[in-house]
C-alpha cells in the first residue's frame, strides 16, 4: 500500500489567528486529497533550511525571502498573499487574521465554498488522490476596511461561535457585542425562543451568566484575530445610575442630585417613556457632560481588549433637551463635542481604543459648528428607516422629503432611499478619518426575502456603492441565525465586502449552485415567481399583496404554486444525499410554506372565515418549535413574524367586516 504524502505546515510567530490557520489547513487538506497534514511547533523566525510545504506568518516574518510584494502590516486593513517559491507555499497577511484569511483563500482555490456556518455549511470538491499546490501567486486586498456583524436576534452561544468561524472563512473582520453585556439577546435565545423546552424558561439568565457568555465570545473573537466592538446604547442611562443593559421599561428615577441632568422635553426632566436607554441628558450642563465622559473613559480603561468602543446616545428620537442653553447648538454638535473629549482622553490614557459615533435618528444630520478634532474616532451612518427593497443609492426610491436639518424634536425619519443617501453625502465635506455603514438588511427584513423583495441583490449593490457615499465598510446589525430562506444574502454581504469588483450575477450563481446543487434552477425559478407574485403596483410604490377582492385571483395562484413548491422541495430533500443541499432544500420548503400560508390567510379573510385563520395559526405555532430545532443554527425564531403578521391582518379584517 502506497504511503500517503504528509504536508508539513510551519506557523511563524505566536499570534492565535496564525496558529488557528495552521490547524484549519491541517483539518481541511486531508478532506480534499489523500494526504496527511502535520502542524509543526510555531517558530519565532524562519530557519534557513526550512523544509515545510506550507509556511504561514504575518509579512514581517517573510521579509528578505525574495517573495515579491508583501502585504503592508496594518491593524485594521486586511490584505493577503499566497506565494509559491520552489517547493514551499508561503501564506501571509497584513495581520494575524489576514493570515487566517489566506488559509481559507487557499481552500477556496482548491474549490471549497463556505455556504453557511455549522456542520452542513462547507461545500468541498470531490476528494482527489493528490493535492497540487498553487503555482502562481495570489495577492488580494479587502475592498473595505470594516466588515462586521453586530449581535441581534435570539442566539445561543453555539450559534455565535459558529457564525464567528464562518465570518473568518468569509474574511469578515469584526464582531460587536451590544450593551455592557448582550443579555438582551442571550435571554431571547436561552429563555424565550420557542424551541427551548419550557423547563429551561423558568430561570432567566443572570447578569453574571450573560457576562460569561460574552467572555466566551470574546475569547473566540481574539483567537480568530477579529476586531472586537462593544456597547453602543446605555451610556446615558448609566450616567444617571439607571440600568442600561436593555430596552426594558423600569419604574425608576435617577438620584435627586442627578435629575437635573436629564433632558428637558416639553418642560419636564424625566426618564423617556420609562425606558432608561431611550433617555437623553442635558448636554449644556457641565456636570452631566463630565459624568457621561467619565462613564465612557472609565469603561475603556477597564476594557483594553475592546478595539472599537461604540459611544451612542439614546435609542429614541424627538427626545433631545429643549432648555435654552442646549438650543444654542444642534444635537449633533453637542454629540461631536462629547466625542472629541472622550476620544482625546482615551488617547491620553495610552489606549489604542477607537471611539465609534453614529449618525442615527436626530443625529443623522452633520454638525453645523463643531468638527471632529481627533483621528481615533470612527463614524457610522445608521439609516434605520430606509427602504431595503431598493439599493440605498437608488434615486428613484424617493419621497417628498426635505433633507435639511429639521427643527429640534420635530424629526420625521426619511423612508425613501434618495433622502437617506443625500443626508449621508452631507457628511462628506467633513472628511472624516474613518467611516462605515451600520445597516439592517439581515434583521426582520430578511425574513421577507422573496416575498416581493430581493434583499440579497439589494445587499450586493449596497456594498458596491459604499465608497460613493464615503463609507469604508459595513457593520451588519442582524440576527445571528440568518440563513433563512436562502444563503445568498449573508454571502453577498461578506463576499462583496471583501471584493466589491466581482459580478453580482456570477457571485449569486456560485453561492446558490453550491447550496442547491442540481436543483438550483428550480429554486431560483420559484424565488423569481414568488417575487413577482407578491409585488403589486408600480415598482416604487412598494406595494405587496393584501386581502382585497381585486387580488383574490393572485392570492389563489400564490397559495397553489407555493404549496406545490413546498411539496416538491420536500420530496427532493428526501432523495438528496448531500447534507448541505438537504438543509438548503428544507429551508426553501419552509419559505414556500410561509408564502402559501400568507396567501391562504388572506383568502380566508376575504371569505370571512375566522375559524380557518385560527386553525392555521394554531397548526403553525404547534409545528414551529420543531422546525426551529431542526434548523437551530440557521434560522432565528423571528422568521415567523411575517406569517403571524398576515394572520393578524386577516383576523382584523374579518372582525372589522363583522362589526
Count of discrete alpha- or pi-helical segments spanning 4 or more residues: 17
Distance between the termini: 83 Å
Strand order of the largest sheet: 9-10-11-14-15-16-17-18
Largest sheet: 8 strands, parallel, barrel
Helix/strand-derived class?
Answer: alpha/beta
The helix content, as a percent range, equals 25-40%
Please give the number of β-strands. 20
The low-confidence parts are none
Mean pLDDT: 96
Tell me the strand percentage band. Answer: 5-15%
What is the overall silhouette? globular
CA-based gyration radius: 26 Å
Task: Give the arrangement of secondary structure elements.
Elements: E1 5-11, H1 16-32, E2 35-39, E3 54-56, E4 79-85, E5 88-93, H2 96-109, E6 113-114, E7 122-123, E8 138-141, E9 146-152, H3 157-169, E10 174-178, H4 183-192, H5 207-224, E11 227-232, H6 235-239, E12 264-265, E13 268-269, H7 286-302, E14 308-311, H8 331-348, E15 354-359, E16 377-381, H9 417-425, E17 435-439, H10 455-465, E18 473-479, H11 488-498, H12 504-516, H13 520-534, E19 535-536, E20 543-544, H14 552-575, H15 579-606, H16 610-630, H17 641-658
Parallel strand pairs: 1-2, 1-3, 3-5, 9-10, 9-18, 10-11, 11-14, 14-15, 15-16, 16-17, 17-18
Antiparallel strand pairs: 4-5, 4-8, 6-7, 12-13, 19-20
